[in-house]
Amino acid sequence: MGVKGFVEGGIASIVAGCSTHPLDLIKVRMQLQGETNVVPNPAVQNLRPALAFHHHTTTASSAIHMPPPPPPAAVRVGPLATGIRIFQTEGVKALFSGVSATVLRQTLYSTTRMGLYDILKQKWTDQETKTMPLGRKIAAGLIAGGIGAAVGNPADVAMVRMQADGRLPVAQRRNYTSVVDAITRMSKQEGVTSLWRGSSLTVNRAMLVTASQLASYDQIKEMILGNGLMKDGLGTHVAASFSAGFVAAVASNPVDVIKTRVMNMKVEPGQKPPYAGALDCALKTVKAEGPMALYKGFIPTISRQGPFTVVLFVTLEQVRKLLKDF
């Protein structure tokens, strides 16, 4: 029974991850908006070539007609505009950048967390009432999510970098060809420990997501069936899973923003990294862009988390039906 839970969860997670990958990529790009360490100098970008390299003294009269450009943090691009811009500048293929890393991540991270949650759920469920208290569901999610994240962190780092690569200037792009190439080059160029960069954030986020997502799905599903609102079918699965996705998005978005920035930062040999750690990244982000920066990308997060959770649990329920005799 234990192995069966891992197989069912793994299949459902890979299907859900691949089908919602473009939404996840848009979310990552939006979360990186406002970072100054990778954005070219806007003062030079917004000038014509003849002015960008003009070294003569500018007169006072001409200076009046050239107000300074707004800081990068002031520019905000929505999810739809972000998706269109990626499509126009990088092509439709770019929307699936890092999909190989997504497959590996779901295979390692989600398979582990779904399987462990299923095992704990079986052990902690009351055999007489066939129910498990909400507190135990949350505890099972925290444990399963933490272990799954530790296992899948290398694929998570590779996925973030591959998704974010297109926003960098051409000279700064890493141009990973696959998740294997990304992991191999990171190990050689930055050390094996770079594969677990931001792992504390990944673990914290995964614990929040798994506890809120899996526990709330089971709890809401039980409430719907217990109150006779709907029968155990597709409608119940969709309603419970979308509600669970919303809860997970609200709980995890701040940690997800910090995780994305820490994993994506480029560390040059002999130079100080942009962020000393998760707390430093959080403080710098809030100081430079305000507290709501921690909810950057929330619309694409819920837009992705909702469909992802729906596809995940609907697929899971169908896979369980197919494998019920095994």
UniProtKB/TrEMBL annotation:
<feature type="repeat" description="Solcar">
    <location>
        <begin position="232"/>
        <end position="322"/>
    </location>
</feature>
<dbReference type="GO" id="GO:0006839">
    <property type="term" value="P:mitochondrial transport"/>
</dbReference>
<keyword id="KW-0677">Repeat</keyword>
<dbReference type="InterPro" id="IPR002067">
    <property type="entry name" value="MCP"/>
</dbReference>
<keyword id="KW-0813">Transport</keyword>
<feature type="repeat" description="Solcar">
    <location>
        <begin position="4"/>
        <end position="123"/>
    </location>
</feature>
<keyword id="KW-0472">Membrane</keyword>
<dbReference type="InterPro" id="IPR023395">
    <property type="entry name" value="MCP_dom_sf"/>
</dbReference>
<dbReference type="GO" id="GO:0005743">
    <property type="term" value="C:mitochondrial inner membrane"/>
</dbReference>
<dbReference type="Pfam" id="PF00153">
    <property type="entry name" value="Mito_carr"/>
</dbReference>
<keyword id="KW-1133">Transmembrane helix</keyword>
<dbReference type="InterPro" id="IPR050391">
    <property type="entry name" value="Mito_Metabolite_Transporter"/>
</dbReference>
<keyword id="KW-0346">Stress response</keyword>
<comment type="similarity">
    <text>Belongs to the mitochondrial carrier (TC 2.A.29) family.</text>
</comment>
<dbReference type="GO" id="GO:0005310">
    <property type="term" value="F:dicarboxylic acid transmembrane transporter activity"/>
</dbReference>
<keyword id="KW-0496">Mitochondrion</keyword>
<keyword id="KW-0999">Mitochondrion inner membrane</keyword>
<protein>
    <submittedName>
        <fullName>Dicarboxylate carrier 2</fullName>
    </submittedName>
</protein>
<feature type="repeat" description="Solcar">
    <location>
        <begin position="132"/>
        <end position="223"/>
    </location>
</feature>
<dbReference type="InterPro" id="IPR018108">
    <property type="entry name" value="MCP_transmembrane"/>
</dbReference>
<keyword id="KW-0812">Transmembrane</keyword>
